[in-house]
Amino acid sequence: MEGTVLDPAGGAPGAASASVMHRVRGVWRRRWVMLGVALGVTALTAAWTLRQPRIYASSTSLIIDVTAPRILDGEVKEVMGEERSNYWFNKEYYATQSEIITSRAVASRVVDRLGLSKDASFLGLPANQDPAERAKALEDADPVGLLRSRIQVVPGKDSRVMNIGVEDVDPARAALLSNEVAAAYMAENLALKLRTTEEARTWLEGRLDELGRQSKAGEMAVYDLKKDADMLSTSLESRLSIVSERINSYNLKLTEVRTRIAAQQARVDAIHRLRRDAGNDETWAEAVPGAKDGPIQDLKSRYGEQKAACAELTERYLPEHPKLLECNRKLDVVRADLLKSLSNVVRSAETQLAEAQGEEKNLNKLLDETKAEAFQVNKKAIEYGRLQRESDNNQRLYELVLKRLKDIELSGLLRTSNVRVLDPAQPAMVPVRPHTRRNLMVGWVMGLLLGLGVALFLEMLENSVASQADVEDVLGLAFLGVVPRMEATKAPGDRDLYVHRAPRSAVAECCRAVRTNLLFMSPDHPCKTLVVTSSGPQEGKSTTCINLGVAMAQSGNRVLLLDTDMRRPRLHRAFGVPNDLGISSLVVGEGSLDKAVKSTEVPNLFVLPCGPLPPNPAELLHTRAFKELLRTAGEKFDRIILDSPPLNAVVDAAVLATQADGVVMVLKAGRTDRSAAKRALRSLADVQARMFGAILNDVDLRQPRYGDTYLGYQGYGPTQDEPKGGVAPS
């Protein structure tokens, strides 16, 4: 694999899942912490459980029916009776009974009956308490609330059984309290029924008096209406029938009169036409209907006879003859009588017409008066019906309330209850609390959870790079290998050349593994120049640089170590060479590379010291002369390793990274801060430096966290020339 340009902001591929696994491994490393916390919590739970008082429980079983036994007739219903019987009603009903059992009313009955307000043992007061303090405590105590807190109601499944349980430190008192609570509940239930019945009776009595007054007022209103309508002997319906008959009679009579008027009107109209058509001829009256009656016929006969006699005398006598004059006089008299009779016939017809018209007028008047009377009777009937209905309704309500009042008075005399005891409570000798086994199990589980939380918390507080997972998952770098911790008895010079002087040690083997990984990073284009740096000081980058150079030199390569840390150079002290001529001298043109390069006791390993400390190291490394120095050294050596300053301290390492083939980061196990390492990587990413990977330095293989991961490295040491013990490299 080849080195890559790292982007610390982007993270490593698969970082999320790898981070989870990293947390899991971190928690597993702290499994003894988890176990210790779990044991501690379990021990505390056991101690707490053993200090708890023993609590005993007793239970009384009740059978609660929805309605009390029905002793009276089915029509006599109680005030609190309920005819419904469905699932939801029963559920609400039994839930209500549970609330009543645990109510203050029931608890107060038990406290008053047993005198619990003065019972120091029940109230939990110390036996040797001062009398004044005990009196004050008894005054401040709430025995009702204390008893309510000890009552538990457990309804039986799919049944009408209700279990009333009471807990107490005394098993006998627990049974007594349970039975007394059941008795108090039954008494309270009956008292509630009686109170409700009494309230209903009082209300019904008030309503009964009011309805009685209303019924009496309604009857008087009906009486006054009948009196005003003159209905003492007949009803409104009868009177309305009489008026209707009268209206029908008047209508029939009026029809007859109007028919007669039409006939009379036709007769009178005919007479008027005869009179108009006859002119001065007075004989027109003979054609009048009715002129042929007996008297008129006699007059007509006499008139004809007299007229014939006068005509006979006219032939015989002169006009002035007395007999003729007498005859004419008699003829005039008879004629006058005839005309008078005929005129009376005409006047009779006109009189009959006028009489018929007057009768029609009177009939119309009577009909109008009768209709008005009918309307008035109808109005009275409506008012009468309304008053009668109100009176009847008031009477029915009165009778209904009276009947209900009698039923309530009768049911109130009963003392039946819908609750009965199934099994009374008995003292139980086995305590229900504390549950020792359950508490210990809960304590163990809670301890494990708390231990897990502590382990996670410690893992979250762990902010150092300590394992391969930290390098790969957190920093996203390729892991090149580890360097175990060296023994503490070695002198500083011996530690620097430890790989050379102890080639069979675990440190030497790890360095050779790192060398192999680096060589295989890019087999087609092997790295020529390599920068070794760290995020901060004292992380072992110089020692790692020397060990890596020794391992490469042992493989047959000519290796040159460049001490580019121009602020705190160290390679010249490690190899015991002078520092009067070095990199700073060559950059400014003093001396030559061959004279500046020093050989070491390690074959094929050479070192180029820093030289005199310059005032401007970063600017010196930016010069063309330094680049030319690297190019010239590259022509003479197979590998060039640059020991650079820490990245977070100065910018020298970032400058060197742009001129080398790649960078290797040295991380001190358990000390290098993750955030500091990320800042260092970001500075390298800013200059587009190529990262080969990271080396985890100063790894203590004896720690539990490394025992399973790097177990294979421990097989190589310690050897005969390696005493046990370890110390961190500088």
Automatic annotation (TrEMBL):
Keywords: ATP-binding, Cell inner membrane, Cell membrane, Coiled coil, Kinase, Membrane, Nucleotide-binding, Transferase, Transmembrane, Transmembrane helix, Tyrosine-protein kinase
Residue ranges that the Swiss-Prot or TrEMBL entry lists as coiled coil: 296-373
Cell location: Cell inner membrane
EC number: 2.7.10.2
Keyword Glycoprotein: no
Matches recorded under Pfam families: AAA_31 (PF13614), GNVR (PF13807), Wzz (PF02706)
Domain Tyrosine-protein kinase G-rich: 386-458
Membrane disposition: Multi-pass membrane protein
Transmembrane segments: 32-50
UniProt catalytic activity: L-tyrosyl-[protein] + ATP = O-phospho-L-tyrosyl-[protein] + ADP + H(+)
Source organism of this protein record: Corallococcus exiguus
Any GO molecular function: ATP binding
Enzyme class at the top of the EC tree: transferase
AAA domain: residues covered: 540-671
Domain Polysaccharide chain length determinant N-terminal: 24-113
GO CC, one annotated term: plasma membrane
NCBIfam families tied to this protein: eps_fam
Family statement: Belongs to the etk/wzc family.
Primary site of residence: membrane
Protein name per UniProt: non-specific protein-tyrosine kinase
